[in-house]
Amino acid sequence: MLIFYKLARNTFVECIREPVYFLMLATALCINGLFPTAAMFVFREQIKFVVDSVMATSLVFSLVVAVICSAHTISREMRNGTVLLLLSKPVTRFSFVLAKIVGIMASVSVFLFILNASALVAVLIAKDQFRLEFGLMAVYYGAIAAAAIFGGLRNYFRQVSFTSNTLAALLILIPVIAAIYYFVRVSGMDAHGEIDPEEFIEARHLIPALLLLFPAVWTMGSISAALATRLELVANLTICTLIFLLGLVSKFFVMQWVGDSLFGSFLRALLPNWQYFWMADALAARQVIPYSYLLWAVLYVLFYIGFWTLLALAFFNERELAKDSR
Question: Percent of the chain scored above 70 by pLDDT?
Fold first, then answer.
């Protein structure tokens, strides 16, 4: 168990120290903060526009990061022969594969958690149809800059990782800013009467929808990890993109060809149906997503992760490692 924990921790640390990890995170954070400015061009739908946009950005960027992390921590170790050194120690192939998947999912979860916090900030910035909370926007981008400065200073004076220290600062600053401004906004609305659903979305509606993005990226993390035992980054990203696109339209084609039957439901479950995790329509209708649905989604993903973990182990067992290290 100790060896498994160390392998998973090292995989997590290796992922968050990659410069491309921070670049993807910083890009997604900046994009999420800019969506409220575009919402001023829609009529009384600014909250829906911002929520749809930030959720889509968070999901797509997290899926790409999952593939990149898999390529850097699995494909690269197989290519340079590091895996041979690990397997020469008391490390089984199953422990290696499972620890890699857990470490990748942990790093992607941290990535998505920060983006979900930024989603709440973006909703708070879109104050109403004709006004933006420019003060909060300044604080938000100031926090991103402060985190980068903190990471740079730590890297310069202590010679420690810039990306991991910047990530730690963002992990604290963005959620704290979102929580403080949310409670201030809710307190002000409660003092003046009922909350207008066209100008604000409550956390009890938004948080379950954001939580459902985690099972989606965990699924892609396990898929990309399994493919990384055989493929390099470009091929892995291409196949994962194809799986993502097919999962988006699988329900439509299965309904057209098979219909709404038990066999059709089984076919829809073969590919990861991303519609199960996308609750933008429910948010637009101001429906409260029950936590029981979140539980069922997690159980569905656990079975899916288990299948791809076994597939990754099968791919890894048949891999000629010594031949790759020459």
Answer: 89
Closest CA to 155 of 15, 17, 13: 17
User: For residue 227, with 0-12 CB atoms within 10 Å meaning exposed, 13-18 middle and 19 or more buried, which class applies?
Assistant: buried
| Torsion from C-alpha of 188, 119, 30, 216, nearest 10 degrees | 170
Tokens of 24: 């993807």
CA quadruple 286, 291, 296, 300: dihedral positive or negative? positive
- Tell me the two tokens of residue 139: 């604080």
Q: Which of 298, 290, 243 is nearest to 271 (CA)?
A: 243
Longest dimension (CA), the chain: 71
Global pTM exceeds 0.85: yes
Decide: 21 and 68 in contact? Cβ < 8 Å.
yes
> What span, in angstroms and rounded, lies between the C-alpha atoms of 247 and 252?
10
d(CA 38, CA 57) in angstroms, rounded, equals 15
Contact 274, 212 (CB under 8 A): no
- Measuring CA to CA, how many Å separate 232 from each of 72, 154, 238, 315? 9, 33, 10, 14
| Burial of 51: CB neighbours in 10 Å, binned 0-12, 13-18, 19+ | buried
Q: Are 54 and 6 in contact (CB under 8 A)?
A: no
Measured in residues, the chain has a length of 326
Report the C-alpha gap between 200 and 47 in whole angstroms: 7
Q: How confident is the model at residue 324 (pLDDT cuts 50, 70, 90)?
A: very low
Neighbour-count burial of 20, counting CB atoms closer than 10 A to its CB (0-12 exposed, 13-18 middle, 19+ buried): middle
